[in-house]
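Shipment paperwork, digital attachment
Item: protein structure file
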Amino acid sequence: MNNVASILILVFLTITFLQSGYDKIFYWKDNVEWLKGHFAKTQLKNHVPLALLHVLVLELLSTILCAVGAIELLLNSGRTFGYYGAVFSCITLLMLLVGQRLAKDYDGARTIVIYFIPAVMAVYWLN
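Attachment content:
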């Protein structure tokens, strides 16, 4: 069990993006309406559904790659899927951070950093 920390972070990222993706899929209209208000004074105001779709796709990719990566790491110490899951997680979080900064939601941006730190740690450990 040399990879416990990496497995735990991959499971953490899997849960994070699985729940977020689930919320976007099953409450799409609510999310779009809330985000239209959130981004009303930004360049994204007319592109909210498309931006949300892009984030959803990245979250689902991150979820799948992190879950498969945790299983791969557990079964044979393979790092490929986990590494790409961590990288996609970082990219997703950076996209979310850009959105929060555009909306001038500095508390929301600060919260994303909490998720970004373990994602970067996973990239480093799995590289």
